[in-house]
UniProtKB/TrEMBL annotation, chain A:
It catalyses: a quinone + NADH + 5 H(+)(in) = a quinol + NAD(+) + 4 H(+)(out). Residues 78-108, 120-149 form the 4Fe-4S ferredoxin-type domain. The keyword Iron-sulfur applies. Keywords: 4Fe-4S, Cell membrane, Iron, Iron-sulfur, Membrane, Metal-binding, NAD, Quinone, Repeat, Translocase, Ubiquinone. The lineage of its organism: Bacteria, Pseudomonadati, Myxococcota, Myxococcia, Myxococcales. This is NADH-quinone oxidoreductase subunit I. Belongs to the complex I 23 kDa subunit family. It holds the Pfam family Fer4. It is found in: Cell membrane. It comes from Anaeromyxobacter diazotrophicus. The keyword Disulfide bond does not apply. One of its GO terms (cellular component) is plasma membrane.
From TrEMBL, chain B:
It comes from Anaeromyxobacter diazotrophicus. The keyword Metal-binding applies. It comes from the Bacteria. InterPro entries: 2Fe-2S_ferredoxin-like_sf (IPR036010), 2Fe-2S_ferredoxin-type (IPR001041), Mopterin_OxRdtase (IPR006656), Mopterin_OxRdtase_4Fe-4S_dom (IPR006963), NADH_UbQ_OxRdtase_75kDa_su_CS (IPR000283), NADH_UbQ_OxRdtase_ferredoxin (IPR054351), NADH_UbQ_OxRdtase_Gsu_4Fe4S-bd (IPR019574), Prok_molybdopt-oxidoreductase (IPR050123). This is Ferredoxin.
Length: 237, 589
């Protein structure tokens, strides 16, 4: 029983009937006007919305999102270094530890870089991924992260869920103090750029911080635009 | 009392000789040296060093520079141990010190452990920890020993010494001078085994590095071995570099097909791709070396493979199932055999089992009395390993021909016979020919049945092309030029529709009406091996002696029963004797 009904006799006001009718219409009008004029609180932060006037809690998914906790493991990304090349050195540690065996790597050789090895192919089958995050932990170079805060975008084809290195390489670039391309220089990085990179470089963090947890700047709209740019349609054919 | 004679003073005793070293104890086991290593009594031949003596009782003494087939440098200092006969109680290098009668060796004391840790710290001081890009990750003793003996973080608070990161020494070898720990194994190998002293150490102290002489590349034909013996990742192979991780690969005990020496190899593979050959120890054949050409000879196992049966030449070729192709081939061959215009071309690259069945079909199914010998053209030769004859099984072919009463005729006579019209049909077991130009004559044939590994000049002219599986995909035996039969084992199941030569020949025989049936290469040997066994005294088909255990992942006995790809774990334990894969089959199928 949702609430108690006292089995008591109606009092005089209830027996007069009309005052109660007017009161009921009043309640109705109050809710109508409140929803009509103070429809939805616009604060994008769902949990911080002011509900004093607005009662509407609807989430306009996917434009609006419930923020995930900081440790949420979203879609993978390959972290670029500042000259656009991936930090990945194709060491296969992520592919080795992956329990779902969803990572496929082929290594190639760079002729002009202190890091000779880079992935010519780096493919993740997001449908096989079990989102365990082992690949992120295994990576010795902080080259793969799951900090995008996003699910894999929906699609009607399985092939669209197989992400290659071009789609995975996104997000803000990262460099550390002892990265070989900073210490030794690389012919792909101009000298003034290198000096700037050296000035901004931080030590390699051994402790997980919030910075690793989620990187802002990803949105479904951007993902949809990317998909459109690739000529991939989400509509069923 | 003056006359009292004193007792004569005792003649001064002859001065005692200074106490010399105590006489060595009589040997406990005459003819051998007996000592104690970590409390265990060890009996070894005189002259055995401490490392080997300890190994014989299962005590591991770590080392980098010691190699049992090279001279002793004792410069890595990793094998220092406590020995009871050491002057001043110093720690002595176990690789250099022969054991003496009655001594005590301790390898687990605090002093020894401390020096091991200190040695590793010293070796890792300037070593770049770039295991992530190093091709030797998984086979590196620095990694192994760090985990076993050190496990301390670096105390270096200044930049590491920078040296050449990517120095191509020669066509086979790339050197990373930073990773080198100067054990000089490669230098000693080139001087003592390859007999071409092309490597040396330049500069001094922590500026030292391995290099060749100015302008002279490391171009010895045995340079690939320095990659194998390098205990760290300093020397890497240009061929394998970055192509695959060794910990994904499995190894099969195989035999190199580069020449008729038949060097014992490990064939490292992942899924259905062969990645490299490594020499496998066999004192009688190749010790533990192999030449560069042999090392690179695996490439035909991967490229341009024939994977389905074809009928018809050139554009008219269409693929069809193997039994239908065999029927078509048998019909054409039978017709040509009846007309006396049929020749068989056997390749000495095929294994003994292949040739046994092929000879059976040629003799009983087609009624031939002579076969032509194909095979690869001759190459270079030296007085160490490489033989000019680049066919691994020429002696095997001779034995089989002898056993079946087939006369062998040289390939050079086949071309003129085709030109003259005496031969109108050829059955080629293996399409390697010594003279590729002569293959043009085969275009004139009415019927050319080829069992081929790869698409090549001869396979292009085939009227019926049957896909053959090379030695990586089959079991079998090669007989090397000395008459030594050597077994190789299947690494992975045949690719696509390929089948070993013996299976293709047996299919032809079935189409020709022969009653022989074979289930496996082992079955072939059981049925037909007796005909050549007299020439191979003491050979047992199931004997594939294990010489070495592979470090790394512990092999899963039952292989792929966990559903993983075969490359992820050892499918066959390397120390298994006999054909354990037959037992595996019962588990997995």
């Amino acid at each position: 029983m949702p609430y108690r009904l006292d089995d008591t006799a109606a009092d005089l006001r209830e027996r007069l009937y009309f005052p109660e009718v007017i009161r009921g219409v009043g309640i109705l009008m109050k809710q109508f006007l409140r929803n009509f004029f103070f429809g939805r609180e616009k604060n994008p932060d769902m949990l911080a919305r002011d509900r004093s006037l607005s009662q509407n809690a609807t989430l306009q998914y996917p434009e609006e999102r419930v923020p995930y906790p900081p440790g949420y493991r979203g879609l993978h990304r390959l972290v670029p270094r500042e000259d656009g090349r991936p930090r990945c050195v194709a060491c296969y540690m992520c592919a080795t530890i992956c329990p779902a065996q969803c990572i496929y790597i082929e290594a190639g050789e760079l002729p002009d870089d202190p890091i000779e090895k880079y992935p010519t192919k780096f493919v993740i089958d997001e449908l096989r991924c079990v989102v365990c995050g082992f690949c992120v932990e295994a990576c010795p170079k902080d080259a793969i992260r799951m900090d995008s805060g996003e699910h894999a975008p929906p699609s009607y084809t399985r092939a669209a869920q197989i992400w290659d290195e071009k789609r995975l390489l996104r997000g803000p670039p990262v460099s550390y103090q002892y990265d070989p391309w900073l210490r030794r220089g690389a012919s792909s990085i101009p000298a003034e750029k290198l000096a700037e990179m050296k000035a901004n470089a931080k030590p390699f963090s051994t402790v997980a911080t919030d910075e690793y947890a989620q990187t802002p700047g990803f949105s479904v709209k951007n993902l949809a635009a990317e998909a459109k740019a690739r000529g991939e349609t989400l509509a069923r054919k | 009392m003056a006359d009292e004679t004193k007792p004569p003073a005792p003649a001064t005793a002859a001065p005692k000789p200074p106490p010399g070293p105590p006489a060595p104890p009589p040997p406990k086991n005459p003819g051998f040296v007996t000592c104690t290593i970590d409390g265990r009594e060890v009996v070894v031949k005189p002259g055995t060093n401490v490392v080997e003596a300890a190994k014989s009782v299962g005590v591991e003494i770590p080392y980098y520079c010691y190699h049992k087939r090279l001279s002793i440098a004792a410069n890595c200092r990793m094998c220092l141990v406590e020995m009871s006969n050491a002057p001043g109680g110093k720690l002595m290098p176990g690789c250099q010190m022969p054991v003496a009668e009655g001594i005590t060796v301790k390898t687990e004391t605090a002093r020894v452990k401390d020096q091991q840790r200190a040695t590793l710290e010293f070796l890792l001081l300037n070593h770049p920890v770039d295991c992530a890009i190093c091709d030797q990750a998984g086979e590196c003793k620095l990694q192994d020993y760090y985990m076993k003996y050190d496990q301390k973080p670096s105390r270096l608070d200044m930049p590491k010494v920078e040296k050449g990161k990517r120095v191509p020494l020669g066509p086979m070898v790339v050197l990373d001078q930073e990773r080198c720990i100067l054990c000089t194994r490669c230098v000693r190998f080139m001087r003592e085994v390859a007999k071409k002293p092309q490597l040396g150490v330049d500069e001094r102290g922590n500026e030292s590095f391995i290099t060749t002489f100015d302008g002279q590349p490391l171009d010895s034909k045995y340079s690939g071995n320095v990659v194998d013996i390098c205990p760290v990742g300093a020397l890497t192979s240009t061929d394998l570099r970055f192509r695959g991780r060794v910990w994904f690969m499995s190894s099969a005990r195989s035999v190199c097909t580069g020449c008729s020496r038949g060097c014992n190899t490990f064939l490292d593979y992942l899924k259905e791709t062969t990645f490299r050959y490594r020499p496998r120890e066999n004192e009688a054949v190749n010790q533990e070396w192999m030449c560069d050409d042999g090392r690179l000879s695996y490439k035909y196992l991967n490229s341009e493979r024939v994977l389905t049966a074809f009928q018809g030449r050139g554009a008219a070729a269409r693929d069809l199932p193997l039994p239908a192709a065999a029927e078509a081939a048998a019909g054409a061959l039978r017709k040509a055999a009846a007309g006396g215009a049929l020749a068989a071309l056997f390749s000495p690259v095929a294994s003994l089992e292949d040739l046994l069945v092929a000879a059976l079909v040629a003799k009983e199914g087609l009624g031939l009395s002579e076969v032509y010998v194909g095979g690869r053209p001759d190459g270079w030769q030296d007085d160490f390993l490489k033989r000019a004859d680049e066919n691994p099984n020429r002696r095997g072919l001779e034995l089989v021909a002898q056993a079946f009463g087939l006369a062998l005729k040289p390939f050079a006579e086949l071309g003129p016979a085709i030109e003259a019209g005496r031969v109108k049909a050829v059955w080629a077991v293996g399409t390697e020919v010594p003279d590729p130009a002569a293959a043009a004559a085969f275009a004139r044939l009415e019927t050319l049945v080829c069992q081929a590994y790869n698409h090549g000049p001869l396979a292009r002219e085939a009227t019926v092309l049957l896909p053959a599986a090379p030695h990586s995909e089959a079991d079998g035996t090669y007989v090397n030029f000395e008459g030594r039969p050597q077994r190789f084992e299947l690494a992975y199941w045949p690719r696509g529709g390929a089948r070993p030569h013996w299976a293709l020949a047996a299919e032809l025989g079935r189409a020709l009406g022969l009653a022989w049936r074979f289930q496996s290469a082992r079955g072939v040997w059981d049925e037909l091996g007796a005909r050549v066994a007299g020439s191979l005294p003491g050979f047992e088909w199931d004997s594939l002696p294990s010489t070495q255990k592979r470090r790394g992942l512990v092999p899963l006995a039952a292989g792929t029963v966990d559903g993983r790809l075969p490359g992820y774990r050892e499918r066959v334990p390397t120390d298994a004797v006999g054909d354990t894969r037959m037992d595996l089959l019962k588990v997995t199928r």
